[in-house]
Every structure is written in C-alpha cells, then in structure tokens.
C-alpha cells in the first residue's frame, strides 16, 4: 500500500463543470467526432458527452465553461520518457547514439538527488503543457522524482533503471554484470512500487523498467519476469534500440534480444518495448505473436537516422503506442512523425496509415499498454476526466473541415490551452495551475549547468 501520509498534494480537489460549445474527438470505438458538443464532469469522471442539443436536464445545472473554437481530446498517454535527460537536450540528438552509451556528456550516475528532482519537474510540467496527462518515466532517483513529478498535477508512472551492468564502464564499451547491482536496482524498483503504486489518488504507479537486454544479464531478466508476475506489475524496456545492443546480446547469450526476452518469459502482452529498431523478420513475427506493446519513438529515432518497422509490426499483431523519449515532450509532433514514417514504409497514402490511427496510438493505445484502458484514453462516460482542449482559433488551424486531420497534420503542442486530470484543471490558458513555472525553469537550468560543468571537468 502507498505511504499516503507522506504524499505531497495528495488530495485532488475536483470541481463539477460542464464544458460547452466545442468539438469533441472521442477516440471511442467508433472514433466519433462531435460538433457543437459538451462534456459534463462530475467527481472527476465524465458524466455525459454529446451534442449540446441533447444535453440532459440533470447536467444543465452544472457551472459552465464555454469553449467555442476549441477541440477537446483525451489526454495523451506518453508511454516512454526520460525527463531528466533534458540535461542533454540540443546535444544528444546529434551524437548518433544513446546518452548512456556516449562518453563526455552527463550520465545518470552523475546526477545528484536535487538535480534529478529539478530536471524531472521540468519534464513533468513540459509534458502536461503539451497535453500528456500521463507519462511513463524512467531514469535515476525515482524514489524522489516520482512524487516530485506527480506534484505537478498529472499522472506519473516511474521506475529507476533496473540493470546489473556497470553503467560507468559502458561509455568505454565495457559490459560488466554484477549480481549486487541487479539485486539493488530490482529491490529499489519493488520498494518504489510498494510505496507509490496507486498513490496520489491513483495518479501514480510503477512499471518494472528493465533497462535493456544488453545491460541486464539473462539471469536478471528472468528475475524481473518473476517479480512482474508475483507483484502484478507490467514491464518496460528498450528493445533492439541499437546494432550494438543486438551484437552484444548475440555475443553474450547467442540469441537476438527478442529471442532472449521470449526465453525468459518477458515477451508478452504485459511488455512495453521501446524503439524496436533492429528486428529481423523472425523477431517481428515473434513480437507480433506475443502481442507486445511497442513504444514507438518516431521523432527521436528519425533524428538518429533510424525508424522502427511499424507497418510490419502492426501487421504481425504488435500493439503500437507513442512516446517522446528524451526529446521535447510535444506528442502532437510525434503523431505527425509516426504517420509520415508509416507512409514512407507503405510507399504512399492508403487506409493503413491515417490520422485516426496515430491519434489512437497516442491515447487509447497508450492506455492499453499501461493497463488503464478502462480508466483513460478516450472521452467516454464513466472514464476519468483526463481531457485536453486545443485552441483551434489559430491561422494554421483554420479552416477546420476535419478536426483530426488538422490536429495531426498542422497542430502543435503549443496549441494546448487547457488540461484536466481526473477532473481537476491543471493547465489553464497555457499555464500550469499547481506550480510556479518560472521557478521550475530556473531550477532546471541551474541543475543542467552544474552537470555540464562537472562533465567537462570544470
């Protein structure tokens, strides 16, 4: 059970209200788009959604917020982030390899607790301002960053990196696995879940974050699978994120990373696997049969000159979701890149890749990967009121013939005007309501400055 006595800002006050005069993109099974519609929020949940002409009398008495010219969507579910890695923003994108494997820049083991909190709060507020009502974050000092991020007002799943490789050596190309490291990192993850899973009125949780098949030994991966089943926790990992990972696992274990995860019992529909770039045809089929959830990182991967075989993975049966990784947290841009990369693979435009497909990946697809499909991911009666209002009264969003098309092709995260999480407004007119944004920015800049000074030997 969570230690509720020490949860900051635990109680989420909600205000019943009626949002009116807007366009609602429901992302329900029929992908309905409702014009001149309304959404009633009661006790943090959606009590009614439909055309204003059909407003029930019992909802008509709620306090109203008229939102003419806005488009309302479910909150984005950003399934793969590393908030603290904003410390290498504008640099790591041009290195050609993941920060953890790159010498000469700040690394996770360099980050102090105070620096971790400052940078994590920046990541949480950035994601919320861009419309992500849930982030699934992994990195270091998770025992401190999880509650700090939740204090911004959104849903936060988090976990420290579980691994038994010595990260201080990997930048030099040395993979040394130590049981003590694995026991410590897995133990810390389970302790984190004991304290925070289901805390903050249900806004926080833990997935066991096995860092990657090359940084986790075969034995540790098996222990993570056992812990997942024993404690009822889902697992996320990086899978086939680099050729170096594939080569290292083949050298060590004689299997591809996907084969290894399958053998140790992790390749299943409770696995969220990020990147999935370097999979052969057999591994794509294996992942599809297992029904894994793929955390597609289209912008980040394309910046590095790579792309996941998302068309093949979809056809094989894998479930696709979306994340921003350590890039900026604009999920709208991620939607656009996911659509473009899918169409490049198809060599044209057809019904297989349309805006509705990537919007579903960024909302309901993410909710399913997190085990929360019954609670979030669509604008439907009974679900939590995790809602995002985009201001479509912008030159680049007018005229609006197809709201989903405009959202995916021409909108930006900066068009987010209001955000609600469990019925509580956490962003109003583009500003966070629960925290001092300027203070968060100042703290994060100071933390990054200190990290870079140490990395450069200053």
Automatic annotation (TrEMBL):
Q: Does the keyword Cytoplasm apply?
A: no
What's the protein here called?
A: 5-methylthioadenosine/S-adenosylhomocysteine deaminase
Domain Amidohydrolase-related residues, every copy? 71-426
| Species of origin | Pseudorhodoferax soli
Q: Name one GO molecular function term.
A: hydrolase activity, acting on carbon-nitrogen (but not peptide) bonds
One Pfam family matching this protein: Amidohydro_1
Q: Which UniProt keywords apply?
A: Hydrolase
Fetch the SUPFAM superfamilies from UniProt.
Answer: Composite domain of metallo-dependent hydrolases, Metallo-dependent hydrolases
Describe the family membership recorded for this protein in Swiss-Prot or TrEMBL.
Belongs to the metallo-dependent hydrolases superfamily. ATZ/TRZ family.
Note the InterPro entries from the entry. Answer: Amidohydro-rel (IPR006680), Metal-dep_hydrolase_composite (IPR011059), Metal_Hydrolase (IPR032466), MTA/SAH_deaminase (IPR050287)
């Amino acid at each position: 059970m969570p230690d509720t006595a020490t949860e900051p800002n635990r109680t989420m006050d909600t205000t019943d209200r009626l949002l009116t005069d807007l366009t609602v993109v429901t992302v329900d099974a029929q992908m309905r788009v409702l014009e001149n519609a309304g959404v009633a929020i009661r006790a943090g949940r959606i009590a009614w959604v439909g055309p204003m002409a059909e407003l029930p009398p019992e909802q008509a008495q709620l306090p109203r917020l008229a939102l003419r010219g806005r488009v309302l969507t479910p909150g984005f579910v950003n399934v793969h982030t590393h908030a603290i890695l904003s410390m290498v923003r504008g640099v790591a994108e041009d290195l050609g390899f993941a920060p953890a494997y790159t010498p000469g820049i700040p690394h996770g083991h360099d980050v102090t607790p105070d620096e971790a909190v400052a940078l994590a709060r920046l990541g949480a507020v950035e994601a919320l301002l861009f419309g992500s009502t849930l982030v699934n974050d992994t990195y270091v000092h998770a025992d401190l960053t999880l509650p700090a991020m939740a204090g911004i007002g959104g849903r936060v799943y988090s976990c420290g990196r579980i691994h038994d490789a010595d990260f201080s050596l990997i930048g030099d190309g040395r993979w040394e696995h130590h049981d003590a490291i694995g026991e410590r990192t897995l133990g810390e993850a389970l302790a984190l879940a004991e304290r925070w899973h289901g805390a903050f009125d249900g806004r926080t949780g833990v997935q066991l974050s096995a860092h990657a098949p090359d940084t986790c030994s075969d034995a540790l991966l098996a222990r993570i699978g056992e812990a997942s089943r024993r404690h009822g926790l889902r697992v996320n990992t990086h899978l086939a994120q680099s050729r170096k990972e594939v080569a290292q696992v083949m050298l060590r274990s004689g299997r591809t990373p996907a084969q290894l995860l399958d053998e140790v019992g992790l390749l299943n529909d409770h696995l969220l696997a990020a990147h999935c770039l370097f999979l052969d045809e057999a591994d794509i089929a294996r992942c599809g049969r297992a029904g894994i959830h793929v955390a597609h990182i289209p912008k980040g991967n394309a910046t590095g000159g790579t792309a996941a075989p998302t068309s093949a993975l979809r056809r094989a049966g894998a479930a696709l979701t979306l994340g921003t990784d350590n890039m900026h947290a604009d999920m709208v841009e991620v939607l656009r890149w996911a659509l473009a990369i899918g169409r490049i693979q198809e060599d044209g435009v057809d019904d297989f890749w349309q805006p509705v497909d990537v919007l579903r990946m960024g909302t309901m697809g993410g909710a399913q990967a997190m085990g929360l499909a019954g609670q979030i991911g669509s604008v439907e009666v009974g679900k939590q009121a995790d809602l995002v209002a985009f201001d479509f009264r912008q030159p680049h969003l007018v005229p609006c013939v197809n709201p989903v098309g405009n959202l995916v092709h021409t909108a930006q995260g900066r068009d987010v005007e209001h955000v609600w999480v469990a019925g509580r407004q956490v962003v109003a007119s583009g500003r966070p309501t629960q925290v001092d944004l300027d203070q968060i920015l100042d703290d994060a800049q100071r933390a990054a400055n200190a990290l870079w000074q140490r990395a450069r030997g200053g």
